[in-house]
Design brief:
This protein is α/β, with parallel strands linked by helices. It contains 9 helices and 13 strands. Helix 1 packs across helix 2, helix 1 packs across helix 3 and helix 5 crosses helix 9.
């Protein structure tokens, strides 16, 4: 019995199409279609109804999928056991994350993982735009979010919570004045993360639940935290950033906290995966590595 047809059929069903499954497996969709067609001929049943506009698993296809999934799980579990026992991981991991996450949290972790597992290849898509990880064949997405992520079929695991604060250079504060309370922010120059809106809004909170909200007109709007840090360090104004991204600047006194009893909000960092089933051992190992190590990287 040729298990390739069952394996490819399972992947096509789980990725909801030949094209996304082909991208995830890095093989042409024509090859997937051929294997599934051969499996259909072998079984004498139609598993997938497919046209140029529609993809639908038949009733018999759903039944075959349930059995095939169990068989593929057993094979992948055996493969995982072999790789883990020999401490040799091979294969590709496709991941996506934001620019800031890549620069300040993931870069040392990716390097350390690849140093430990030199036969693994990581393909990292860095973008501040939310992408469809199923359609693009991504294995792991790392996303920072202030609000809960929308309910979906994706597997979501919160890894850490990071604190944001207001920061500025000592030279700027000496010239513009040190705010002693949130109302003193009036008239201060602001630097804003994000460019889609050219107005800013500081939302501050204390540990006892007090809140303060104030709009401001930014001097600089940017998607890049490094640009904003350099601008703040150069004395151009006050910026709200995750505190862990400014750890070195705070230690070197290039930046200082403004209104240190107030935070500029919290954000969760979550790991998203398309499914718990059929996860290759290399992807599973890397996901567990991030789960264990990323919280330490972003801690203050």
């Amino acid at each position: 019995m040729d298990m390739n047809g069952y394996f490819y059929f399972v992947k096509v069903v789980e990725k909801k199409g030949f094209a996304p499954a082909g991208r995830a497996l890095n093989i042409p969709k024509s090859r997937l279609s051929r294997h599934v067609s051969q499996l259909e001929d072998q079984l004498g049943v139609r598993l997938i109804q497919r046209t140029s506009r529609q993809f639908k698993v038949t009733e018999m296809g759903e039944a075959i999928y349930q059995h095939a999934r169990k068989a593929v799980d057993e094979i992948e579990a055996a493969n995982t056991a072999i790789q883990e026992s020999s401490n040799i991981l091979t294969g590709k991991v496709r991941m996506t994350c934001s620019v800031g996450m890549a620069q300040f949290a993931l870069s040392p972790l990716v390097a350390r993982f690849l140093k430990s597992y030199p036969r693994v290849e990581i393909i990292q898509q860095v973008t501040n735009q939310a992408i469809d990880i199923i359609d693009t064949g991504v294995d792991i997405a790392i996303r920072a979010h202030a609000a809960p992520l929308p309910d979906s079929t994706l597997i979501q695991r919160r890894l850490a919570t990071v604190t944001w604060g207001l920061l500025a250079s000592q030279s700027y504060l000496e010239q513009a004045g040190i705010p002693m309370n949130p109302e003193d922010l009036e008239g201060h120059a602001g630097l804003k993360l994000g460019w889609k809106q050219d107005t800013g809004h500081w939302v501050l909170r204390t540990s006892d639940g007090s809140t303060f909200s104030k709009p401001y007109q930014p001097l600089l709007c940017s998607d890049d935290m490094v640009t904003l840090k350099h601008a703040a360090s150069a004395g151009l104004g006050i910026v709200a950033l995750p505190l862990y991204t400014c750890r070195d600047e705070l230690r070197a006194k290039r930046l200082v906290r403004v209104l240190p009893d107030w935070t500029a909000g919290n954000a969760d960092i979550s790991l998203l995966m398309p499914s718990r089933q059929g996860v290759p051992p290399t992807v599973s190992h890397f996901a567990n590595f991030l789960r264990d190590e990323l919280p330490r990287i972003v801690a203050i």
